[in-house]
Amino acid sequence: MKQEDKYIDHLFESAREETPQISFEEVAEVFSNTTSPTLLGLAKGWFWRNINLNSFLFISATTLAIMSFFLFSSSNHPTKKTLDENLIVTNQIKGSSSNENINLKTIEKPTNILLPKESNVSKAKNIKTSSSSPKPKIEFQKINKNIISESPILLSISPELKLEIPFNISLTPSFKNIEKEEFILNEESKYETIEESFSPWVVGHASEMPWKIKRQTKIPILNETERVLQKFMDTKYLEQIFDKGENGYFKPLKILTYYSLNENYFTHFKGERIRLMNEKISPDFDPNEPFIDVEKFKIKKTKAYFTFTYKDYFVQMQLRKVGEGWKRHKLKVKKNKEVKVNMTF
Amino acid sequence: MTSKKQKHFLKLYQPVHARFEKFCRARTFGDMPYEDLINESLLIAFKKMEEIKNEKAFLSYLIGISTRILANSKRKKKAINVAEPAIFNQHPDPSNFIEKQFEIELLYQSLAKLPELQKEAIILFEITGFSIKEIMKIQKSGESAVKQRLARGRKELAKIIKHQMEFKLIENETGR
User: Fold this and answer.
1) pLDDT-based confidence at A319, cuts 50/70/90?
2) On the CB side of B142, how many CA atoms lie within 13 Å of its CA?
3) In angstroms, rounded to a whole number, what is the distance separating the alpha carbons of residues B26 and A4?
4) Do A24 and A40 have their domain in common?
5) Is A334 contained in some domain?
6) Contact indicator for B129, B138 with CB cutoff of 8 Å
7) How many angstroms separate the CA atoms of A345 and A328, rounded?
């Protein structure tokens, strides 16, 4: 063997015998530090181990469902039904702005002085029974004209004569027309109100002329929420609660809804439109005037709840759905924590 | 789960650490810090631990990984056209080491000048202690090819060392 080879062998031997410059512990430490999982790494690992496409889809669907539920529940109104209602409401706004649907008719009726003419009344009754033909309408219009143009004697005609057919009946109605007409008749007749109150000329004085004003209010077709609210507001007992003005009329009512009702909903109390306001910051809101402070307004499938405070009064009302309409179910009124009324109908 | 895997991996690595470290030191001379090569190889081996079929061949598995890492790093260096740093400048002056360490350092310096496959075969055979059959598997070459690489490598290495020694002697005589 050559000397060079010997030297190389010697070099290799010394290289083999050499102790490692880095100990195993050092390498192990570095290795452990780099490979030990962080919290994020653990989460990532768990995610990739356990989450497959199906579970990912399931999670995303569930999240969407929860989010949509919260979104809809946080909004003021119920879902599909509300959209329909809003559509109706916007239609009503258009209608009411032009004052087409609300007809206020005033007929002054002397109760004692003038006697009703029997003939006219009977005529009117006849007209009512034969309302399917257009003829009676013409007669009725004639009578009305007479009332306006002639002396108060003609005012003796009872308001019952004010039979007005709100649509034109075609002479040869199709089946569809009949259905539609019946529907409109029902709707309008339901929400037509006649209010009677003292004539402003006798307010605060001994009534020498006991005239009374009869006002007829026609309300446009209402949506469900409006109907329910109207039903609540039609409660007789509320007349004892709400303030009256000097003229004997009820003061204009305002309802602070806190977004539980649409501001554009139409509702009235004794023929006076009630102003709905969402917030106190509304320019029409005057905190010094009494107002209906809504605490709860909720319509469920078969029950409706309306709780509010008015001055010192605390009113709880409940309606129950019977068929397609709503029936009064409960009424509880407290004044300064003292129960005034507690009724179940 | 991960800590168990870690422990198992380190258990496998512990007996081969010294050999692997030597291989890395000899193999990376002038290319990259050998500590980095060790760590990188271990990380890759740990990630692909499931691929290990025979735990007895763990060292050759590690060497295979480190060889690929080195080859990749060299390819990248060529692509970027970074000037190769001078081999000797990367290490401290050998005169600071004791005699043995100086010799070893000289050996590694000389080995670094050999062609890749020759260098690898010599390191595996002479320093790491692999048999020719094992080197055949690692290098995926035939027996004669490995033997040839070893023989030629040794010859070349002798020349380089001789040249280096002469250079050092001249250096000492001139007092540079």
Assistant:
1) very high
2) 3
3) 20
4) yes
5) yes
6) no
7) 6
Same-domain pairing of A168 and A281: no
Give the DSSP per-residue string, B95-110: GGS-HHHHHHHHHHHH
pLDDT in tens, A111-139: 444 444 444 444 444 444 444 444 444 44
Burial A272-302 (b: 16+ CB within 10 A, else e): eebbbbbeeeeeeeeeeebbbbbeebebeee
Report CA-CA distances (Å) from B39 to A299, B10, B33, B36.
70, 12, 10, 5
Residues from chain B contacting residue A7 (CB–CB below 8 Å): 158, 161
Arch. (CATH architecture) of B94-176: Orthogonal Bundle (1.10)
Half-sphere exposure of B161 (CA within 13 A, CB side): 24
Q: Which of A2, A4, A20 sits opposite B22 (nearest CB)?
A: A20
Number of Cβ within 10 Å of residue A320's Cβ equals 14
- Interface ipTM > 0.85: no
- Within 10 angstroms of residue A345's Cβ, the number of other Cβ atoms is 10
Q: Check: CB of residue B164 under 8 Å from CB of residue B106.
A: yes
Total number of domains in chain A: 3
Q: Where do the structural domains in chain B lie, given as residue ranges?
A: 1-85, 94-176
Say if residues A29 and A36 touch (Cβ distance below 8 Å): no
Query: Between chains, do A11 and B21 touch, taking CB under 8 Å as contact?
Result: no
pLDDT at A16: 82
- Using an 8 Å Cβ cutoff, are A291 and A241 in contact? no
Between chains, do A30 and B39 touch, taking CB under 8 Å as contact?
Answer: yes
What pLDDT sits at residue A308?
92
**Would you say residue A139 lies in a domain?**
yes
**Is the pLDDT confidence value at A304 over 90?**
yes
CB–CB contact A31 B106 (8 Å): no
**Which tokens belong to A10?**
């010697």
Q: Which of A15, A16, A35 sits opposite B46 (nearest CB)?
A: A35
CB A36 within 8 A of CB B2: yes
Tell if the CB–CB gap between A37 and B2 is shorter than 8 Å. yes
The Cβ of residue A121 has, within 10 Å, a number of other Cβ atoms equal to 15
Residue of A89 and A335 predicted with greater confidence: A335
Q: Which of A100-104, A286-290, B155-159 has the lowest mean pLDDT?
A: A100-104
